[in-house]
Amino acid sequence: MTTGTLLAGGAIVGLQAFLSGCKPTAAVAEELFTPEDVAFLDEVSDTIYPATGSTPGAKDAGVGEFMKTIVTDCYEESDQGIFKAGMADIRDRCKAGFGKSFMEISPDQRLELLTAIDGEARAHSESGSDGPEHYFNMMKQLTDWGYFTSQRGATEALRYVEIPGYYQGCIPYTEGERAWAL
After folding, report:
1. Quick check: 139 and 80 in contact, CB under 8 A?
2. Which residues 6+ apart lie within 8 Å of 86 measured at CB?
3. Which helix (H) or strand (E) holds 42?
4. Which parts of 19-161 are beta strand (E)?
5. Does residue 180 sit in helix, strand or coil?
6. How many CB atoms within 10 Å of residue 112?
7. Per-residue pLDDT of the chain (182 residues; tens, 9 = 90+)
8. Paired strand residues for 5
């Protein structure tokens, strides 16, 4: 598994390939993800970061397309398989649990399902297993990365300073305020 370290010491699957600029052909991207898959990833990411009255959601920031690009261009084939199998698992569990597709269930049902899967992913991470990364951890990492590095996420969800004029090492933070994006 190709990993790199980013943000708070977390490992991001595919980061090394991203940094080295590896890119498969456009035909591979179209074979790996359909437009329906991208819409599905938008909804999964939007469940993680939904729109609020003051901030856009992950779908508004185009995180589904970002996920498609990173998984296609930067993940090794084995990690792509884990990611795609995870998408199938969410779809299957949704059908089994709610009798509908993920796209048809309510936001509350989506949250319920993804919260249960997140618990499994946490248990997998805490087990210390040397096995592959849990697919939902991959999805969350890509959602964080895609959302907070998008123009909308960085400028509307975070307090963005385009060109800081000086270094301020300690900035007071009041609970409830948006975090800084420099």
Report:
1. no
2. 134, 135, 136, 138, 139
3. helix 35-48
4. 159-160
5. strand
6. 15
7. 333 434 444 556 655 555 555 555 444 445 799 999 999 999 999 999 999 999 999 999 999 999 999 999 999 999 999 999 999 999 999 999 999 999 999 999 999 999 999 999 999 999 887 888 999 999 999 999 999 999 999 999 988 877 766 667 777 878 888 876 65
8. 11
